[in-house]
Each structure stands twice: as C-alpha cells, then as structure tokens.
Design a protein that fits this description.
20 strands, seven-stranded mixed sheet, globular, 20 helices
C-alpha cells in the first residue's frame, strides 16, 4: 500500500504544503496560503508605526497555514490520513519570537499586543545592525575562533543581535520571555507538543557548533552582563540533528489538520537548505542557488574550511557526514519587483495588456531583444544590503551608465545581471579559499519561470545551470525529511541520502553558457568587481553617509 508524506514550506510571504508519494515521488496535491498579516515593516496591526529596517510577522499566520493547507491537500488528494506517515517543515531563518514556557507567543498576550518586540522578527529584520556590529567587534577583540566559520562577521539577521536588541529596547519583553525560539522550532512545537531546537538553525543562525557548542558565557557577558547566561535562560543546549524525529502529532494538532495522532514530525530545517535533497544533491562541490525574494547558495564539502564573507559552515548542516556551506544575496526577486512596482511608465502596462501579456513577461520579452553590454549599464545588487561576501546591510544599490537613451528594459536587465555577478563573486570566494564548486543548480520561483535570467546566470558564471524539477522544491525537501522521520519500518527512509536519491529530481533542460556572451560578461564582471570593492570595502563609504543622512 502506498505511503505519503507532507512537506510545509514557510517562505517570506506565504506557506505552502505538498503531499507526495514517498516511493514514487508523485506529487498528489499542493496548497498555498498567503500570510494574512504579510510582512509588517511599517506598522503593527493596531497601526503603531515601526522604525527603520524593521520586519515583523504574526505567528498566528503560521498556524493558519497549517489549518488551511494540510486539510486541503488531504482532501484534494483523496489520501487516507492513516497512510500519511510523516510531516516536515522548513522556515526562513533567522525568524525568531519570544514565548512563554508553554509556547504562547508574547504578542498573543493582550497587554503586549501593541509592543513591536513581542512579535516575530523576520529574517530580514535589520534593525539590530548596531548590536551585530558590536558583537563582531567584541568577538574579534576576544579572539573567538568560531567567528571565522561565519565568514568573519555575524549578521544583524541572526538570533543573538535580535535578542540583544529586545533586551536594550524592551527589557520588560526580554524578562517576560521564557524562551526565544526560531519560528521553525516553534511551529514544530505546536505540532508535537514539546519544545525542540534544530541543529540547522542553531548552527547557522545561533552560533552553535556540533563539537564545541555555543560560545562561552564569558563571551556573552562581555557583550552585555545581562546576557551572560542567555543560552541557558532563554535558549537551550539540547539540539536535535536533522533527518530525525522531533516527536509525533498531538491529538490537538490532529484535530486542527486532519492528520492522525502519532504521525511522525521531522526536526525542521531552514528553507534554503531543504532544497538540497529536493534536487538530489548528495555530493561535495555541488552548489544550489535557491532564487526567490532573496537567494541562498548552498554547497556541500568534506572539510571545515574558513571562507571569508560566507554565512557559515556547519557539520551535518544538511546531510549527515558532510559540511554544509551557506552564502547568500539579500535582494533578488525583491529587486526585480521593486523596479516593476516603481519604475515602469503606463505605456508599458498598456502595451502588455494589448498583447495579452502580464507585465513581467512583457518586460522580459523586451529585455531578450538586448545583447550583453548593449545597454551600457552596470548595477550593484545591494537594494537590501549585502549578505555575501561583504556582510554589510548598510550598503545600497547603484546603477551606472544611464543616459537619455536608457530604456526601462535596459535597467531591468542590468539589475538581473547584477544579481548574477553577485553569485559569481560568491563562487569565486569559495574557489579562492579551497572549496570546490564544480556543478551549479538553481531552484525557487525564478528558476522555474524565467528562462532569460537563468541563461544570463549560465553566461555570467560560465557554468551549466541545472534546474530543480519541482515548483514547490522547499515543500518537497520537507516531505523528504518527513519520510525520514517516519523511518523505513513505517514505509519511509532511514537515510536522508536514500530519500534524496529516490525523491530528488531536476529537469532535463540545462542552460549552457554561450561562449560569445561569456566573453562579454567577463569584461562586465571585471567592471562590477571594481565597483563592488570600491563601494563595498571602504574606499568610498558614500552609501553609508547617504543612509545616515536619510
């Protein structure tokens, strides 16, 4: 009898569920729910204004995703819940919230409903940059060797800077919180009824190391005496490995979703990392770029190598027995959407409508008429700061070379090219530091919908680009972890390698570099790199001065 698993992929704007046959890989049903509260970056539901660089979410949205999508995929597939053996989730990270010891988010408590720090801080909440800067300075002064494993800098997006911001700006919230917990772990807690902590979030976003654990209490005390015991008081040292079972579906959660009580619940994983088994990657040297609102670059290796400017390297960070490297770009799909929302004349919308095309497809069709270098433009892709390899959220975007003849499609293509150059910078950083990159895969919405962009990437990085064969790659990856949580005895898998080999898949279509375009893009990349280092490495801090003035 067939057995099934459900994967739930929590993104920046929505959550999506996928029900899959764990032996054949057949995808039987999917369901998506846009978060009712979306991203709160200007105000709370009450209308209370937020500060600069804030990005919050409402945890109720995460439960709404489960209560809507899981019953829907069960209903649409016609599958008997008795045959669903496991469920797994992935989540954006670091996405963190303060809760009581029973798991109640502080924002659910009436007296804190109008306190911004009581809500979820989304991964792209950058208002803790001052705390990240101080953390990095103290770590350097104390000679903390773990810092080099994160490219030499901890980001404002990570757990400790965000928690430290709460302590400084809303100490009553800090004191009231029994736990600060990743949203991935909190949702899993709601499913299986017990607090858990996953090794992926802890390793990449919480400064935890499989061999050495967390930084010392002395380090946290040096940051702020009030943080000396932050790990024991507000977090946990009990970290669960990936590919294992976090617990089982409770009666309450079963009633909410239609799953059977006792269904295996997987230890969760970060949304980008979960794509790796979904495309069948199991070997060192294979890089995967998950391209959506931002891009994460995942790479497996056999050794722990310190690479400046990356986001981290974690033992067993995706698959057991291998080190998993992460790098990333803060602004990719967001970048393109910003341009369409703010910079197109009405005539373009009129022409698109007349041709029966949506505005994205129409604009791409005009870009496809252009050759590399034809526009005379070059851009820096820092509209939301730089994650790798400069690790600086205070950097901003730039376009160089515009004239009175510049068209919207010229700018749009230049922005796409800029993100490809940013990926090449990351690839070269790995290679220069002895970590091989020999194969390139792409997943996420852009890889599925935008052939032009994928060809540009192949030409810029001068490597073939393979594409994930699943529009819901995150959910598929989570379903693989769910099947492994159930184990072979229940009809799933005892090994993530077996699950990835059986269920991971890529399209037959491969984007091959065009030698003529490669030659042009090599010249353009050299110009990009000059600008990248000039504005990004301190020769000219005009971007930061302008941001401060703003």
């Amino acid at each position: 009898m067939a057995k099934y698993a459900i994967g739930v992929d929590y993104g920046t704007l929505s959550g999506r569920a996928l029900l899959v046959d764990v032996k054949t890989g057949e995808e039987l049903a999917t369901a998506v729910l846009e978060y009712p509260h979306s991203v709160m970056d200007e105000k709370l539901p009450s209308g209370k204004k937020l500060g600069k660089d804030w990005a919050l979410q409402h945890p109720k949205d995460y439960i709404d995703v489960l209560s809507y999508t899981i019953p829907k995929v069960i209903r649409d597939s016609g599958v008997d819940p008795e045959d669903i053996i496991g469920i797994g989730i992935d989540f954006t990270a670091c996405t963190i919230l303060p809760v009581k010891k029973d798991g109640t988010p502080l924002c659910f408590i009436e007296k804190y409903a109008d306190e911004p720090h009581a809500y979820v801080k989304l991964w792209k909440h950058h208002a803790a940059q001052a705390h990240a800067t101080k953390l990095n300075k103290v770590a350097e002064e104390m000679g903390e060797d773990w810092l080099a494993l994160y490219g030499g800098k901890v980001s404002s997006e990570w757990a400790i800077p965000k928690v430290w911001q709460v302590l400084d700006e809303a100490p009553e919230i800090y004191d009231e919180a029994d736990r600060f917990i990743e949203a991935a772990d909190w949702v899993t807690w709601q499913m299986c009824g017990k607090e858990i902590r996953n090794s992926c979030c802890a390793g990449y976003k919480g400064m935890w190391n499989k061999k050495k654990g967390f930084p010392s209490n002395e380090f946290f005390k040096a940051l702020d005496p009030r943080l000396e015991n932050v790990i024991d008081e507000k977090f946990s040292r009990d970290i669960l490995p990936l590919g294992t079972k976090a617990g089982e579906v409770t009666a309450e959660f079963a009633s909410l979703t239609g799953l059977k009580e006792g269904t295996a619940v997987a230890v969760p994983i970060i949304d980008a990392h979960v794509f790796v088994p979904a495309v069948g990657i199991t070997k060192p040297g294979e890089m995967l770029a998950i391209m959506g609102t931002s891009t994460c670059h995942m790479l497996l290796g056999e050794e722990e190598t310190k690479v400046p400017g990356i986001c981290g390297v974690v033992a067993d960070g995706i698959l057991p027995g291998l080190y998993a490297y992460e790098a990333g770009q803060c602004c990719v799909g967001d970048h393109f959407q910003w341009f369409i929302d703010n910079c197109l004349p009405k005539s373009y919308y009129d022409e698109a409508e007349a041709k029966g095309m949506n505005i994205h497809k129409y604009l791409r069709s005009k870009c496809e008429e252009k050759k590399p270098g034809e526009s005379g433009l070059i851009a820096l892709d820092w509209w939301n700061g730089n994650r790798s390899v400069l690790v600086d959220v205070d950097l901003t975007g730039m376009i160089l070379g515009m004239t009175l003849q510049t068209k919207p499609e010229d700018i749009y293509r230049a922005l796409i090219e800029a993100t490809a150059y940013g990926t090449r910078v990351i690839i070269e950083a790995f290679k220069e530091n002895g970590v091989d990159v020999n194969t390139f895969y792409a997943a996420g919405g852009i890889s599925q919908k935008d052939p032009m962009t994928m060809q540009i990437y192949a030409d810029v990085i001068n490597m073939p680009v393979k594409i994930a064969d699943c529009e819901q790659g995150g959910a598929l990856g989570s379903a693989i972890y769910g099947a492994c949580a159930a184990g072979a005895e229940k009809g799933g898998y005892d090994s993530l390698y077996d699950g990835a080999a059986k269920l991971g898949k890529v399209k037959d279509k491969v984007y091959l570099p065009n030698p003529e375009n490669v030659e042009i893009y090599n010249k353009l990349f050299n110009e990009y790199k000059i600008l990248h280092d000039y504005f990004g490495r301190g020769a000219n801090d005009v971007m930061k001065r302008l941001k401060n003035m703003k």
